[in-house]
Amino acid sequence: MGMNTVDEEVVRANYRRLTLSLIEKGMSITTMESITAGQIASLITDTEGSSAVFRGAYITYCNEAKIRQGVPREVIDRYSVYSTETADAMAKACAEAYSADIGIGVTGTAGNVDPANPESSVPGQVYFSIDYRGKLHSCQKEMGALPSRYLYKLAIANEVCLHLTKLLE
Fold first, then answer.
1. Which residue numbers in the chain have pLDDT < 50?
2. What's the pLDDT score for residue 168?
3. pLDDT of residue 4
4. With contact defined as beta carbons under 8 Å apart, do 9 and 40 qualify?
5. So what's the pLDDT on residue 147?
6. CB-hemisphere CA count at 13 Å for 166?
7. Which residues, in sequence order, are CB contacts of 148 under 8 Å at separation 6+?
8. What DSSP assignment string belongs to 51-108?
9. Is 97 exposed, middle or buried (0-12, 13-18, 19+ CB in 10 A)?
């Protein structure tokens, strides 16, 4: 799956496998999402039985919301909201708040992709972190140009899913 195409059915199937695996292992999960605005939480809860593992989530679209939910202001001030450090702090804060085995933090910018001039558009960077039983696993991705914000959300959610699936193996 190239970064400029996203197959929604593939993403949904990946999340179904992930959620069933979490249920089987009895592991709880939570998210603090900015750029994906709840897309990851939504994909997890699309599988029946997910209430056994999904604790809740925060959609922290602005900096103030991140700070209110436990991300230290100093981290955002020092490293910017678009940083590995902020994603780490987001993952840690939600895992602690919900006493979950897994906390996912996602931040970044989808970029202003102009469908008429995709070559001159500059898609942004995405940062995500997975707090897996207290150990942080961080990742930075350069997102290629995608035609819609929804496809950015799906593509980012899929990257998170693939990383978490590897951690669970």
1. 1-3, 113-122
2. 95
3. 56
4. no
5. 82
6. 7
7. none
8. GGTEEEEEE--SHHHHHHTT--HHHHHHH-SSSHHHHHHHHHHHHHHTT-SEEEEEEE
9. middle
